[in-house]
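HUMAN:
Just now I want nothing more than another pair of eyes on a protein record. I would be glad if you read both lines and explained how they fit together. I have put the entry right below:
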Amino acid sequence: MANPLRPLSTGELLDQTFSFYRQNFLLFFGIAALPQVFLFILNVVMLGFAFSTAAARSVTAAATGGIAMVLTALVYLIAALIATGVIQAATTFAVSSLYLEEPTGVKAAYARVKGLIGRSVNVVMSVGIRVFGGLLLFIIPGIIMLRRYSLAIPAAVLENIKTKDALKRSKFLSEGAGGRVLLVYVLLLALIYGISFGVGWLLALVLSPEVLRQNFAARVTQQFLAFLVGAAVGPVMTIAFALLYYDQRVRKEAFDLEHMMKSLQPASAAAAAGAAGIGGIS
C-alpha cells in the first residue's frame, strides 16, 4: 500500500507510526537490539562486580571490586550514548526507506549509518545537554528545547548535515508544530513507561525485592527483561519523529511534490531513451 505523501493530522501520524511498527516489528527490534546486547552484557558485568564487592571479606578486595565497578559504569555510560545515537540514526534510515517505499533491512539501515556515527552521537549529546539544562532552569526552558530540537536527528542523518545545521533545521521545521511535538512525546512516553512499569510489576509478583537484592540470577533476569522491553518499544519514539520530520517537510517545503518530481525523472528518461531507440530503428 502506498504511503500518502500529504500533511497528516496528529492522529494520522500516530496511526502511521504504529502501522510501521506493527508491520515491521522484527526490523525495528533487530535495529534496536544489536547495540543493546552489548549494554546488557556490561550491565551483567557491573552486577557481577557489585555482588562480588558485597561478598568481599577484605578491604582490599572490596576496594578493587568497587574500582572495577566504577570503571565499568563509565564504559557503560559512553557505550549507552553511542548506542543511542546509532539506534536512532539506523531507525530513522529504516523509517525513511519505508516512507519512500524503498527496500530496507537491518543490515541496510546500519550500512547507511556508516560514517555518521560521530555526528548522530554529537546531535544526541547536544540536544540532551540543552534539554537537561533547560529542565534545571524551572522546567519550561527544557520543554522549549525539547520541542525545538526534536527533529535534529532526522535532519542530521537524512540530509547529511553537521550538528549545528541540524539544530537550525530542526528549529525551522518544528516552528508552528510545538503542540504536536509535545503531544507525541507525552503520549508515547506514557506508552513506553507504562509497558516498562507493567513488566516490572509482573516481575515483582514473581520475585520479591529481597530476592532481587540478594540473588544474582534474579537480577540478571531483571536486566534481560529490561533489554527486551527497551529493544521492543524503544523504537516507537524514533519512528514517530522520523515521520514527523517528513510531515513538516511536506507542510513547509512541499516535499510531496519534490519527491513526486524525482520519482518521475527516471520514467521520463526511460521514455526518452525508448523514443530515441524507436527513432533510430525507423
Summary: The chain is about 85% helix and 0% strand. Residues 269-273 have pLDDT under 50 and may be disordered. The radius of gyration is 23 Å. The first helix runs from residue 10 to 23.
